[in-house]
Amino acid sequence: MLRLFRLWRLGRGDLGVLWFALRHKDRPLWLLPALVGLILYAIEPLNFALPLIGLVDDFILVPLALHWLAGFLPAQIRYDFGLKSLAR
Question: Among residues 16, 74, 80, 81, which is most buried (max CB within 10 A)?
Answer without folding.
Answer: 81
